[in-house]
Amino acid sequence: MFTGIVEELGEVTAVETLDDACRFRLRGPVVTQGAKHGDSIAVNGVCLTVVDHEGDEFTADVMAETLNRSSLGALRAGSRVNLERPMAVGERLGGHIVQGHVDGTGEILERKPSENWEIVKISLPADLTRYVVEKGSITVDGISLTVVDAGADHFTVSLIPTTLDLTTLGHKQPGDPVNLEVDVIAKYVERMLGDRAQGATR
């Protein structure tokens, strides 16, 4: 489990294309401290397993299903990525509960800078609209953010200077893809209410 508080802005150093997968080599001095084979690290919000670790770099295999359902397939050597290690038991939950399971991808539609923050408009797949509400939580490229406005096919978030400086959202431009993970609590509530409604009609 993750919190959506990005620990560092890492870099893809190599991409190896396999028959039905990719192997990424990524640099991240912070997240590789104490890393070992089998550990989890979130890369742009996608939970990946450490295959190998050497110095400040690690490798991770990404299957075709993940490449198809996330924006990781667009990564190339030199791409910047958000990195986060799983939350340890007893630590503060600074963001919100993030599983590292991407629900879909959106696209940066518009950026509106102001003096102290920036409003970013992001497209929203139709099947995720019901989970996104004003002032609710959403994960964008692994970043825990608060929804400012929730539309039928888009939402907006407000980014503070720290987020702009230390994450991929400070560099992405209109047309760039982003990974989206909606609040898992909303999905559980939907399921429970659906089961209750079915039970009432039996």
Describe what this molecule looks like in 3D.
- The structure is a single chain.
- The protein is mostly beta strands and 202 residues long.
- It contains 3 helices and 12 strands.
- It has helices at residues 64-69, 161-166, 184-200; strands at 8-17, 21-27, 40-43, 46-54, 57-63, 80-84, 104-113, 118-123, 137-140, 143-150, 154-159, 177-182.
- A 6-stranded antiparallel beta barrel has the order 1-2-5-4-3-6. A 6-stranded antiparallel beta barrel has the order 7-8-11-10-9-12.
- Strand 7 (104-113) and strand 8 (118-123) form a beta hairpin.
- The longest helix has 17 residues, at 184-200.
- The model has no long low-confidence stretch (mean pLDDT 91).
Set down the secondary structure blueprint.
Blueprint: E1 8-17, E2 21-27, E3 40-43, E4 46-54, E5 57-63, H1 64-69, E6 80-84, E7 104-113, E8 118-123, E9 137-140, E10 143-150, E11 154-159, H2 161-166, E12 177-182, H3 184-200
Antiparallel strand pairs: 1-2, 1-6, 2-5, 3-4, 3-6, 4-5, 7-8, 7-12, 8-11, 9-10, 9-12, 10-11
Rough outline = globular
Rg calculated over all Cα atoms: 17 Å
- The total beta strand count reads 12
The strands making up the biggest β-sheet line up spatially as 1-2-5-4-3-6
Task: Please report which band the strand proportion falls in: under 5%, 5-15%, 15-25%, 25-35%, 35-45% or over 45%.
Answer: 35-45%
Low-confidence stretches: none
Question: What is the straight-line distance between the termini?
Answer: 37 Å
